[in-house]
Automatic annotation (TrEMBL):
Compositional bias (Pro residues): 88-97
Record's keyword terms, sorted: Membrane, Transmembrane, Transmembrane helix
Name of protein: Uncharacterized protein
Membrane as UniProt keyword: yes
Residues that span the membrane, as ranges: 31-50
Highest taxon, organism lineage: Bacteria
Region (Disordered): 59-112
Length: 112
């Protein structure tokens, strides 16, 4: 009979013996439910935004698009070569020098 007296005085083991354990479980459930609700709300808003974007895309007037001419192909220039800081990557054709006459002194070869 001592066993029956003991169970009548103590709470059952599945409810727990620490105070506030049930309150913590309820709070965790509330936070989890709130988190799921926020996620569903964000997904819903994203879905509405995507639907509106597709609707606007389908109803847009094709003539309203900006018609820009195709860019003309120009040779790519090197800004540093243009201002003379580095040599140009493009081969340059040498300018022909005039032929020397008998009275002219011979010219030194160009420096590299």
């Amino acid at each position: 009979m001592a066993i029956n007296d003991r169970t009548a005085q103590e709470p059952p083991p599945f409810l727990g013996t620490r105070p506030g354990r049930r309150a913590q479980a309820i709070q965790r459930l509330q936070i989890g439910g709130l988190g799921l609700g926020v996620i569903l709300l964000v997904i819903g808003v994203a879905n509405v935004v995507m639907d509106r974007a597709q609707e606007v895309e389908q109803t847009a007037v094709p003539e309203a698009k900006l018609n820009t001419p195709a860019p003309e192909e120009t040779q790519a220039s090197d800004p540093l070569a243009d201002i003379g800081v580095v040599p140009s990557p493009e081969p340059t054709t040498p300018t022909p020098e005039p032929t020397s006459t008998a009275g002219d002194a011979p010219k030194a070869p160009p420096a590299l």
